[in-house]
Amino acid sequence: MSLSHRAQRMLQHQMRHRADAELNLIPMIDILSVMVSFLLVYSTNVEVLQNTKAIEIPQSIAEQQPRQTVVVMLSKDELFVQGEPIATVAEIHATAGDIIEPLRDALKRPTLVGQEVTEKDLADREITVMGDKSLPYDVLKKVMRTCTDADYGRISLAVLQKDKPVPPGAMGTS
Amino acid sequence: MLVSMIDIFTVLVTFLLMTAVFSHTVVLELKLPPANAQFTEPPPGLQLEVTVRKDSLQVGDRNSGPLASFPNKDGGYDYDGLSRYLQQVKSKFPDKTDATILLEPDTPYDTVVQTMDRIRVLEVNAGLNVVQYELFPDISIGDAPAASTPP
């Protein structure tokens, strides 16, 4: 079966250009440079708080950046101070008063912050609480009470920044 | 020449992609009294309190009593109603920046944060951007008194 006239011509054309076929480099470099600049812009601010998979923190519209502080993490079933397990949520539930003793002992440790703390700073030391969003307020209250009792006066709650909703009509105009 | 440039770009892209963070963690600051503070009489004037119940959100003044109540809508809290009401309060008391959230022991942490958001700022769609107006950013947290009316 012989090829049609047109097919023959196309085959010849392909054969002629086989040798100098090459990757189209300029658009590829364009894309790469756009990606590099985009990622550079978005990776300028360093994350202070490490997010873990065990904790699902709630979303919020807050814009305050976290600072370097002592971090208390509350997962669904355990409590960590600076990554070190301290107590379980079941134990916190069982605590009769408002003070969680193991947590207070851990927070009272002078080496926790890694720096000398003067008497004046003591009252407004900062602490960040990362809690799972399903935890009841009861547990949270005990943790916060213990924090203030251990002289951490300023408590911040870590939250996930909510994505800004794109209003209708904003697409394609910028 | 071109090939080495592509090499560098590829390495950069992979490196930046690996370190890129797409979810930003931010913090909400609380204003709590120190643990050894004595009980003091609230100063005169408006002392705004928002009580989170199982079935409603209630706005009140510590000195004069409840002001408004927002029953749950569609199985969730009526945050929009609360937002609108607090906007009116803010327009009457523009200098006021503090509020207290009162919570029941089994309120989920997520609800606490959502309520705090609505009390702190008001979000308004202005043209293409969302603009945040400050309402009552200095928030403290307390225990809700037992419900006065049985359900």
Would you give an account of this structure?
The complex is a heterodimer of chains A (174) and B (151). Chain A is of the alpha/beta class and 174 residues long. Chain A contains 6 helices and 6 strands; from the N terminus they run ααββββαααβαβ. Chain A has helices at residues 5-17, 25-42, 89-94, 101-108, 119-122, 137-149; strands at residues 59-60, 70-74, 78-81, 84-88, 126-131, 154-161. Chain A has a 6-stranded mixed sheet. In chain A, strand 2 and strand 3 form a beta hairpin. In chain A, helix 4 runs parallel beside helix 6. Chain A is elongated, with a radius of gyration of 29 Å. Chain B is α/β, with parallel strands linked by helices and 151 residues long. Helix content of chain B is 29%, strand content 31%. Chain B has helices at 2-19, 79-92, 109-120, and strands spanning 25-29, 48-52, 56-61, 65-71, 98-103, 121-126, 129-134, 138-143. In chain B, the strands form 2 sheets. A 5-stranded mixed sheet of chain B has the order 4-3-2-5-8, covered by helices on one side. Chain B has a two-stranded antiparallel sheet with strand order 6-7. In chain B, a hairpin with a 3-residue loop joins strand 2 and strand 3 (56-61). In chain B, helix 2 (79-92) runs parallel beside helix 3. Chain B is elongated and about 80 Å long. Chain B starts with a helix and ends in an 8-residue tail after the last strand. Classes of the chains: A alpha/beta (174), B alpha/beta (151). At the A-B interface, helix 2, strand 1, helix 6 and strand 6 of A face helix 1, strand 1, helix 3, strand 6 and strand 7 of B. Strand 6 (154-161) of chain A pairs antiparallel with strand 1 (25-29) of chain B.
Which key terms come to mind for this protein?
heterodimer, A: 174 residues, alpha/beta, six-stranded mixed beta sheet, 36% helix, B: 151 residues, 3 helices, 8 strands, 29% helix, 31% strand
